[in-house]
Structures are given as structure tokens and as C-alpha cells.
Amino acid sequence: MADKKYKIVFIGAGNVATHLGLALLKSKHTIVQVCSLRNSSSKELAKLLKSKISTSVEDIDTSADIYIVATNDDTITKVANKIKINNKIIVHTSGSIDMNVLQKASPNIGVFYPLQTFSKQKKIDFSKIPVCIEASNNKTSKVLKTLAKSISNNVIEIDSKQRKTIHLAAVFANNFTNHLYTIAEDILIKNDLPFDILKPLIEETNNKIRNNSPAKMQTGPSVRGDSKTLKAHEQLLLNDKDYLQVYKLLSKSIIKSKKNN
Amino acid sequence: MADKKYKIVFIGAGNVATHLGLALLKSKHTIVQVCSLRNSSSKELAKLLKSKISTSVEDIDTSADIYIVATNDDTITKVANKIKINNKIIVHTSGSIDMNVLQKASPNIGVFYPLQTFSKQKKIDFSKIPVCIEASNNKTSKVLKTLAKSISNNVIEIDSKQRKTIHLAAVFANNFTNHLYTIAEDILIKNDLPFDILKPLIEETNNKIRNNSPAKMQTGPSVRGDSKTLKAHEQLLLNDKDYLQVYKLLSKSIIKSKKNN
Q1: Residues 169..188 of B with a Cβ closer than 8 Å to A: which?
Q2: ipTM for this prediction
Q3: Model confidence over A138-193: pLDDT tens digits?
Q4: How confident is the model at residue B126 (pLDDT cuts 50, 70, 90)?
Q5: Cα separation of A144 and B208, whole Å?
Q6: For the segment A80-136, what is each residue's pLDDT rounded down to a tens digit?
Q7: Are A85 and A102 in contact (CB under 8 A)?
Q8: What's the confidence (pLDDT) of residue A2?
Q9: Which pLDDT score, from 0 to 100, does residue A42 have?
């Protein structure tokens, strides 16, 4: 069962389709077709994945085993309501969309959510990426698990509510964190200082939580109750009302977390 | 000059004194004395650094070349106003305190600020840590540069204003980031999900900015203008007013940053 190879169609040709498609191809599955409204992206990806192309859901190849909808969230339901796939398995790859939006397409539906941030240019080792699986029935679940295990050592079965919670937590840990780096970079650049100076610190901040709870690793003026430094920092941010607001709210939130611990 | 070895006294016996002291000892400087009001910490550190101890600034050894005040910020001025060191060099290690608070102690004053987050238990490679140097005169500056270069390959001369700016940026990139990890962990734990599931994502978020500006690496619902997901996340946080506030403010800040770019 673990060696079973599948025939797959991708709907969508963005970052998720690209990285997931490459990982599946590497594990000897066949990507039959890439379907994308934008002709140029599907051409590019189809070449990478050695597959046919289609620019319309009406022309979809019906011979595949699994249809992976890796479009933006708004398009998933539209695709599901239009596609004809004779009860084949269809999944989407979104962290925040209900599995059930697929139910007009087939009784055999699921979610195949790789918990990672993908950039077009950057290669990625899929074996360590958690793949979160959800399915409408046992048969579909087994197929999706086999597919996921062929590319990742970290396959997890969760329901839609858990997936949405994970996606929310990921926004804090990834999107918001990156934005704080952006603010730090902007503060430094405005003062003719290079962002590079912070990189050893950022690396160590992340090393620390590899084996420790971040709640126990908190440092800085807020958790120390160092109100002089807090005041001094707020003074430095007086001309940057937006950053000042972020500074005040996160400092308050750290102080509150400390009290609750 | 680069091989010159110094005799050093530490005032303070916390994390900075410990890690800096160990790095200086490894580079063949002599730690003459550790002075700390808390007898137990100074004993422990003096043993590590093969030095004498003192529990009062009045008993300070006056034979050293450099006095490093690595206490908490509030104590630095008190130490400087009391210590008698015959015009020897005295520095503090703080990111946010003016160099001039030391001026009662000596005409030869400076700052020796290692830009890193230190934990008691965790060993650290000092060679990559940026050491920010400031001095009241050229002679002192030369000594501090020699000292800093003996333990780090990343020595930078900056003034007090620049140092305070760096410290502020470090709060965003380190303290606030760690707090976002704490929030993510808390959201997951409350839903019986392990924080470990986010670790590959956190690692990749940080890999991305190693060679790219974080401003260009922003992903997520806010920067995509995906208002449905934003609304759904806010719904999930309705029982967590504090996290909801952080979510809304950082989302708004990301949207604003995008407009300015």
C-alpha cells in the first residue's frame, strides 16, 4: 500500500501546486494534468511536472485518481461546483476552508494541507513538512495517508476545526513574526543601520524554542518590569505612531502573560 | 596589539557576566574578580571564571585594567557613583543606558554591548555575536576594540543613540517574536494540539530572511487582502480578547506596510 503510485491532476499552478507537485513527482506519482486559468503559469508548471495542461475545468482529464485543488481560497468552491470527475477523490490544500465546500464535486473529498510557507524560488525539503489530512470516508482517508506518507514523515489526521486553529496559530508564528522583522528592519534602515546586525539574535531566539516552551524563554524589558526602558523606547517611537501602538500592545500582552503563568 | 591580554573585574554575576566572562577567559584574559551583592551568584561565577569574589563595590580590586558593569540597568549608575578605580577603564553592557552615567567613576568610560539574548544554561558561540562599542576617548576605544576583537569577529563602533535604536529593533525581532510564539503555543495547547507542529514553519520563516528583506517575504491573509480568512480568524479568537486585539493590530499594520511599499 505504501508503494502505491497515483495519477494526479492539479487545479491551480501557484506556489503550493509547484512545490507539492514536484514532491509528488519525485516520489514517482504521475501528474497527469495541470489546470489553470492563467495559461502562462500552467505551461510553466506543466513543463516542470511533465504533464499536460488545460486552461478550463471543463477540459479536465477524468482518468486520474486524485484531483488537488491548490487555488486561492475563493476559487476552491467555484472549482468544486463546476468540475466533473465521476466520484474520484478531490481535495483542497487550504488551511482555512471547510472540507465540505467540495461536496458537489464527489462523495470522496478531503483536505491535504501542508503546513509550510512556500516561495516560488526557494526549494524545500518536503519530508519534514507536517501534512494535515482530513477525509469524508475511510477509503479516501487511506488513499490520502498513503499519498502524504510518500512525501512526508510527518502526516497528521485532524478535523476542519483543528486545521483552522493550526492555521490561526501559524499566522502568529509566521506572518506576524515576519512583520515584526519588517518593523525592526525599517527602524534600523531609518537610522542608517544594517538589518544584518540582528541576524545572530534572531537565530538564537529561534534556537532557544527548539527544545523549550517559548513561554519560559521570554526576555526583555516588559517581562523584567523595566519601565524606564519601556518609556525610553516609547519616546524613540513618538514619530512612528503605528509602531508605537504595536510596541505598547505587545508589551502589555507580555506583562499579562507573565501574570497568568 | 591584537594579542594584548587584560586583567578584568566583573560587577554583576548574571547571564551577560557569565557568558561574556567565559568568552574572555577562553581568549586568555584574566578575570581578577567577580563582584556581586548576591553572594551565591558571585561564588558560582567566580568558580567558573577562576577569579576572586567580592560582595561589595568598596572591596573592589584596583589592580585590573577594565571594569565591566554587567548588572541590571538600574544598578549601573549606583555602581558608577560608588566605585573607586583610579582612572581605569569602566564600561557597562546595556543596550539602553547612556554611556555618560559612568562619568563619576572615571574619565575613561565606554559601552561594551553584546547584541544577543543569553540564557543561563545555554552555551553560546561568541565569535558571531555583534559587539557594539562606544568610548569616551580614543585610548579607551582602542582598548575596547582589542578586547572585543579577541572574542568576536563582528565588532561595531556606534554612538549611544544608535545603540538605543538597535536595542529597540531587537525588542521587536526577539522579545516580541518570542511572545508571538507563546501566543501560538497557547492557542494550540488550548485545542489539544502540539506546538511542535509549527516548528518546520518557524524554521522556514527564519531561513527566508537569511538572504532576503523580510518586507519582501511577507505572506498570509493580510498581505493577500483575504478578508474572509481575517474574519474567520477573528471569530476563532472571540473568547480571547487580548489575542484578538494583537491579531487585529498586526493585521492592520501589515496592510499598511504593504501600501507604503
Answers
A1: 169-188
A2: 0.92
A3: 999 999 999 999 999 999 999 999 999 999 999 999 999 999 999 999 999 999 99
A4: very high
A5: 29
A6: 999 999 999 999 999 999 999 999 999 999 999 999 988 877 788 999 999 999 999
A7: no
A8: 53
A9: 87
CB contact under 8 A, A201 and B115: yes
Q: What is the bridge-based pairing of β-strands B109-114 and B131-135? A: antiparallel
CA gap B195, B202 in Å, rounded: 11
Helix (H) or strand (E) holding B78, with range, is helix B73-82
- Whether B7 has its CB under 8 Å from any CB of chain A: the answer is no
What is the grid cell recorded at B233? 480568524
Partner-chain contact A198 B257, CB within 8 Å:
no
Amino acid at B8: I
Q: Which of B19, B161, B229, B258 is best to mutate for the A interface (most A CBs within 10 A)?
A: B229
Instruction: Report residue A146 CA to chain centroid gap.
Output: 21
Contact flag A256-B245 (C-beta cutoff 8 Å): no
Number of residues assigned to chain B: 261
Is the Cβ of B193 closer than 8 Å to some Cβ of chain A?
A: yes
CB B56, CB B72: distance < 8 Å: no
Q: How far apart are CA B226 and CA B90, in angstroms?
A: 55
Query: CA B94, CA B76: separation in Å to the nearest integer?
Result: 9
On whether any CB of chain A is under 8 Å from the CB of B51, the answer is no
Residue by residue, DSSP assigns A12-32 as --SHHHHHHHHHHHHTT-EEE
Contact between A253 and B242 using a beta-carbon 8 Å cutoff: yes
Q: Does B123 touch chain A (CB under 8 A)?
A: no
CATH 3.40.50.720 fits A7-158, yes or no: yes
For the question of whether the overall pTM of this predicted structure is more than 0.90, the answer is yes
The letter for the amino acid at A203 is E
CATH number assigned to the domain with residue range B164-260, chosen from the 4 options 1.20.58.340, 1.10.150.530, 1.10.1040.20, 2.40.50.100: 1.10.1040.20
Domains A7-158 and A164-260 share a fold: no
Mean pLDDT of A16-23: 96
What one-letter code names the amino acid at A35? C
Alpha carbon of B151: minimum distance to chain A alpha carbons (Å):
15
Cβ-defined contact of A174 to B220 (cutoff 8 Å): yes
User: Is the Cα dihedral A15, B177, B121, B21 positive or negative?
Assistant: positive
Burial class (CB in 10 A: 0-12, 13-18, 19+), A210: exposed
Q: Where are the domains of chain B?
A: 7-158, 164-260
Considering CB atoms only, which of B169, B246, B254 is closest to A253? B246
